[in-house]
Amino acid sequence: MKPGNDDKGQGAEGPAAWRQRIGSGTRTAVRFLLGYSRSRASLVSNQTDRRLKIRRPDNTVLVLSPLECDRRVSAQEVEAFDLQALAQRGRISLQPVPSRWVHRLAFVQSLTGKLSLLSFIAAAYFFLIDLFDGRRARTYLLIALGLMGASLVSMLLVARLGSGMGMRRSFKRWVRGKVYPILLLAIGVGIPSLVILASEGFIGDLRKVLEATTVWVRSAGQVLPEVSSQDRLLVAGRFLQLLFIGLLSLLPAVLFFAFDRQHQSTLRERFVAHIFRFDPAVETRQDVQTRYGKQMDEAYGTEGRDGTTRLLPTRRSPLLIATLVLALGWTFTMLSGNPSSSGDSPVDFLGFFQPLKSTLPFGFLGAYAYVLATTFRSYARRDLQPKIYSHITTRVFTVMVLAWVLEESWLIVPGDGQTLEPALHTLAFLTGIIPETGLVFIGEVLRTTLRRVKRSAKEPGLQLVDSHEPLTSLEGIDIYDRARLQDEGVTNVQALARHDVVELMLQTRVPAPRLLDWVDQAILHLHCNVGGQTDGGPDSLLPTLRRYGIRTVTDLLEASERAEKRSKHNEFLQLLSGSASNGSIPRLQVVLDAIKDEEWVENLRCWHKTQAVREEVVDVQAPPEAPRPEPRESTARASRPEVVTGKRVGDGAGAPTVA
Fold this sequence. Notes:
By secondary structure, the chain is mainly alpha-helical. 62% of the residues lie in helices and 4% in strands. α4 packs antiparallel against α5 and α8 (229-278) packs antiparallel against α10 (317-334). The longest helix has 50 residues, at 229-278.
């Protein structure tokens, strides 16, 4: 064989052999990490609302509280209490405990991510001042890319070791968690930055300040920067203005992210606990997932294999659009004019934080005040959802149109325009700040006034108002609660009594006791308040029931059952039916018969029952004993069925067996 051919063959096989070696080494390292990360301990979670007592034959008991999560148990306890069998029955769930490598890699991921951000900032700084022909900018850019790669690898390893998910799904989850915050930051800071950079002379002043600062740092403070105070104030004022606008533009979106990180992880567990109490047909978490899984995924996000949910469970586009609209509004309001300066006099520093004195900016300021009040109230009530940000966008655009119309219509007002200009700005601000709840309040006042006019009218058939009662006629609902329920399509008492209660529990995030109390009142209100009369009219049973302390339909059913047990049911019906009872059948009896067909009555009664903690005792059978070895000559006569069923084969009649 010729040497040339030998060299050619080695050169052809070299890259393939190296790729094979690298792939084999990578697989070996991954298998080592996966094997090292496996822990013999497990996390057990109770999947029922009962207290589970798992009892062994030696009277050793393992107690799991109702819906207890992530109880650490050893491998010996898993085997001794036969927890794998209970997990297969759906009573509990078992998950391996992640190793300490997961926490270490998570720390590495966080550290490398922050260092990569600082490296990008340093690269942008050196690129802007163009020191050393851009060599430092390229160096820091390469460092930033390397740190970002290390952060990505650490993230993949954390997902692989911690939750056991595949690489593709982990990368998708990481992208969904990082892309939208980056886009929001780019919108909130990028738009005012472009306007500031496009301002006249700012780039030159910024370059002078940066170069002078660099020379001063390199000389250890020996060389003073040769920059005028006017240039320094202009650059500092613009940067503070950019920080101010960016903070105000991003604040509503930041509240949503803070809400999600603080409350989103507990809302799902709270709903599961409430649905166990509300729906008697469910016994395990699997039953809840089967009946309400799709609704929970829409409201709280899909649940991963490790029990976690994605960062933002719903649409993210309303956050982006609302942030874009707010950034444009603040840019137009704060960056429309330049601060006054003359000659060598210093720049008016406060001029950077004064809005443009016009109708549209003041209308936007009123709308932004309404936005802050709405988002903070929703944040405090744990009801901050993306649909609120769609409402914010609509609100800002509506105020803009009203401000334009108001500015044109103000021309017909007699008087000096400059004198009346502050009044116009104040009116534009009030137009933006008056929320829809104020309009709802005005409607309630008009409806109440018209109802009084109707009652005082001579014609009894005169209908000036809608016969359906507003939600504020129920106890405990204020004007803000009605505005929130109206967003879900619930506009009156009849709509609340006939709405999907589980959907309201998921979407409104009103505390379940309050929401169910409203539904309980609405059903009684619907059957006993004929004609919308709440002050003792002849067709209404509601005032009589309330005088005796009966305010909900479950109260009425409970009082009726107690009276029947005391053999006083007829007296009970006559007492509460009053003069409205005509004929032999009391009117309240007819109401009780009609109430029994209501959809949510049984669920409401189950909710109000005394919730005593139920217990479930699970007896663990003793493990089957190993069969005794037969003599060598009788090995062929060994019976396999007895070994499989776990029964010990005896050598005589009446030998005991172990189940």
